[in-house]
Design a protein that fits this description.
The complex is a heterodimer of chains A (390) and B (351). With 390 residues, chain A is an alpha/beta fold. Chain A is built from 15 helices and 13 strands. In chain A, 36% of the residues are buried. Chain B has 351 residues and is mainly α. Chain B has 14 helices and 3 strands. A 3-stranded mixed β-sheet of chain B has the order 1-3-2, with no helix packed on it. In chain B, helix 5 packs across helix 14 and helix 11 runs antiparallel to helix 12. Classes of the chains: A alpha/beta (390), B mainly alpha (351). At the A-B interface, helix 6, helix 7 and helix 8 of A face helix 1 and helix 2 of B.
Chain lengths: 390, 351
């Protein structure tokens, strides 16, 4: 455990050496949070203050400022690494039908472990939110069983919801300053009042909210409101985190940053959590997910990463998304020699199916040889994106 | 300072921070203080005590309700911002109980401004009424009213203290006769009542000798002289021609009327003369009223002066002093306030 932590710290130093300051700071804060040590928190926040004074002038950064801090973090080490059971959620044959609309989701079978992320994808109105609400105990399944396994046990529904946190698509409004709200949350989770501000400040720093900590709801952009909600949630030390479309209000850079941060934090050694994330941003979600649940018309399909039945299908063929400035006939003529078995056009991009023996580089080479200008190319053989075309 | 207090509360006493009682309760206390001062600083004297609304001024009740509503609205806007229960934070039962009690406290304390005002007013009133000797004043009133013929029936012989026993016996005898007559079918109820002979005593004109009533019967702070004692004293004055004593008693009443600012047109001297004007101290025909609004006083030079004393106001003033001395807390209203505060706290807590 300590070895992994040391490796982690060295990675932080490497990020600083390669001038990836943003990533380095976030990972540094992760390491500091793992220690749960107030002295380390205070030192780290002092470092953040100094770092803020640099502004955009990254050339003024001094490694000798960060090295002692990293050494101190390594010396303190991880406090109370989590050693409980890994599995936290098991869903068996769950089905739910809405009487009015007749819509139903059925045959849900999956499990979730701490530190793992499941992406939940599908078109609008196909049951993603229903599934999340079932998992969050906001809806009761008609059949099947949802089991939660928390090391501390679970006395009642309220107790469940203290460990299972569901963040809805529409983030509820809050009042007062961001800082006050987070401190109020911390006061219910941490017994030592003197550490309250440190915990709040460190989480604010971790989610990049330092310049906005004294702002109110009305003065924050929707992206920062999402970050605030995440900060509040992470301070609650969840065991399961259910996020419904958290990327909807974020720009592309923020989407990637937040997803990567969630991945890092879910993998925490001291306070790991499992996460299910619904989103329309399939590629971004796939990058961080350990498994994908694709829902269409209430029926779930599971991605290859989960080791389910759909894996064999995805391995049997090469599926590409392609946008070119050539006619369908010209494209077909160029790619037929490579064993093109199926071609679909949705008005924007072509979806090309080849046998598994064909590689994407061969396809790219053939397109280049035939002077077909390629505007967009993506191999979706392993992506749940392919389900949308079926 | 406010920021520091806020930060201190939020980390150490999140319940106090969230319910905002640290800010609202001192404000409520301050307002209570102001209401008390407003009540205590009222310029009051004995003349105000006849007003039954003296301690229930509607405008103050309305104003205190307005203040209550404003405070509660502002407070609730802040209180409802964070709900740790709805957010599913791990909270203990003691926290929940504490929160409920704080809500109860806010509702109760903010709804009782008027009572504090009244307490101030009572304390102020109590200060100057402590000197009043109610037993003496009750005796003065009871004695003086022997010479004030508000209702001439009260001055008839069968009303006299000496005839009380005889009157009772006569009543029983009449009832027996009536029962016999009606039950034996000798007469119907109406026939009997029509033919019943007038009691002899009723035919005698009313006289100051026969008055035997008390304007103020009982006091919590002492025992006034009985009707028999007063009657004996008055009969003695009349039979021995003690005009000066009668005048003195009426003068003392006049002093009280002025002290309590009781509406009256009352001249003790002419009244004394009137008492001694007829043989056997018969009550004359000069009109005396207890209401001023029905009869305009006639010119003072008239032989038959129409006089009045608003004696209900006088007795009300005495009983008001008694209420002040007992303390004003009306426990039924207090209970209503407690029920209100509890109900409101339950509603808000379950919101």
């Amino acid at each position: 455990m300590q070895h992994a932590f040391s490796t982690h710290i060295r990675e932080v130093l490497t990020h600083y050496e390669t001038a990836d300051h943003g990533l380095a700071l976030r990972r540094l804060l992760d390491c500091a949070i793992e220690t749960r040590d107030p002295v380390v928190f205070a030192e780290t926040l002092a470092f953040c203050d100094w770092n803020d004074t640099l502004g955009m002038d990254e050339g003024a950064f001094r490694l000798d400022k960060v090295r002692p801090l990293l050494e101190q973090i390594e010396r303190v080490g991880i406090k109370d690494p989590y050693q409980g059971p890994k599995e936290v959620l098991a869903v068996e044959n769950v089905a739910k039908k809405y009487a009015k609309s007749g819509f139903q989701i059925s045959n849900l079978n999956f499990s979730l472990e701490l530190s793992k992320i499941s992406g939940l994808v599908g078109e609008n109105g196909n049951g993603k939110t229903t599934l999340l609400r079932l998992l969050a105990s906001e809806l009761k399944p008609d059949s099947g069983k949802i089991s939660y396994f928390f090391p501390e046990g679970m006395q009642d529904a309220y107790s469940l919801k203290t460990k299972l946190i569901y963040i809805e698509q529409r983030i509820p409004r809050w009042y007062g300053s961001l800082m006050d709200n987070l401190q109020f949350t911390v006061s219910h989770y941490h017994d030592k009042p003197e550490e309250n501000r440190l915990w709040t400040e460190i989480m604010i720093a971790r989610l990049g909210l330092r310049p906005y900590r004294h702002l109110t709801w009305g003065r924050l952009s929707s992206g920062y409101r999402t970050r605030f909600e995440l900060a509040k949630t992470l301070l609650r030390r969840p065991k399961i985190l259910l996020l419904d479309e958290p990327l909807a209000n974020l720009d592309i850079v923020a989407q990637q940053t937040i997803l990567q941060d969630l991945k890092f934090m879910a993998n925490s050694v001291s306070a790991p959590f499992a996460m299910i994330l619904s989103s329309q941003h399939i590629y971004e979600v796939e990058k961080v997910s350990d498994s994908i649940i694709f829902i269409r018309d209430g029926v779930a399909r599971y991605d290859a990463k989960s080791g389910n039945a759909d894996q064999a299908e995805s391995e049997s063929q090469l599926i590409l998304e392609l946008e070119v400035n050539a006619s369908r006939e010209a494209l077909k003529a160029a790619l037929d020699p490579l064993g093109l078995s199926r071609i679909q056009y949705n008005g924007g991009v072509y979806l090309l199916h080849f046998s598994a023996a064909t590689s994407s580089s061969e396809v790219l080479g053939t397109l280049a040889k035939n002077e077909v200008e390629t505007l967009y190319f993506r191999n979706i053989s392993q992506s749940s994106r392919r389900f949308f075309h079926q | 300072m406010f920021t520091k207090l806020n930060a201190w509360l939020i980390t150490r006493f999140p319940l106090l921070w969230n319910t905002r009682v640290v800010f609202v309760l001192p404000l409520v206390l301050l307002i209570h203080g102001l209401f008390y001062l407003a009540g205590y600083s009222q310029k009051v004297d004995f003349s105000d005590l006849k007003n039954s609304r003296f301690f229930n001024a509607e405008e103050v009740i309305l104003f205190s309700c307005l203040i209550t509503v404003v405070i509660l609205l502002i407070w609730m806007v802040h209180y409802l911002r964070n709900n740790p229960l709805k957010a599913h934070y791990p909270i203990k039962k003691a926290y929940m109980f504490g929160e409920f009690m704080l809500l109860f406290l806010v509702f109760f304390s903010s709804a009782t401004f008027f009572f504090t005002y009244r307490q101030g007013l009572y304390d102020q009133t109590k200060g100057f009424t402590d000197s009043a000797d109610l037993v003496e004043e009750a005796n003065t009133i009871n004695l003086a009213y022997h010479f004030i013929p508000l209702e001439t029936d009260n001055f008839r012989p069968f009303r006299s203290c000496d005839s009380l026993k005889a009157r009772k016996e006569r009543g029983q005898a009449r009832l027996l006769l009536y029962n016999l007559a009606v039950k034996q079918g000798k007469a119907s109820h109406t026939e009997y009542m029509e033919n019943e002979p007038e009691p002899n005593l009723d035919s005698i004109p009313p006289s100051y000798l026969y008055y035997c009533r008390l304007m103020i019967h009982t006091l919590d702070t002492g025992t006034p002289a009985s009707s028999e004692e007063n009657s004996r004293r008055v009969v003695n004055w009349l039979k021995t021609g003690r005009k000066d004593s009668v005048l003195h008693a009426l003068n003392r009443l006049k002093v009280l009327l002025i002290k309590y600012d009781i509406g009256h047109v009352f001249d003790p001297l002419s009244r004394t003369d009137s008492v001694f004007a007829y043989p056997d101290f018969y009550v004359g025909s000069d009109y005396f009223s207890k209401y001023s609004e029905y009869e305009e006083p006639m010119p003072t030079d008239s032989k038959q002066v129409s006089q009045f004393i608003e004696n209900d106001d006088l007795t009300d003033s005495i009983s008001m002093i008694e209420r002040v001395r007992k303390g004003f807390w009306q426990y039924e209203i207090l209970l209503i306030m407690l029920y209100y505060a509890m109900g409101a706290a339950i509603v808000l807590y379950s919101f």
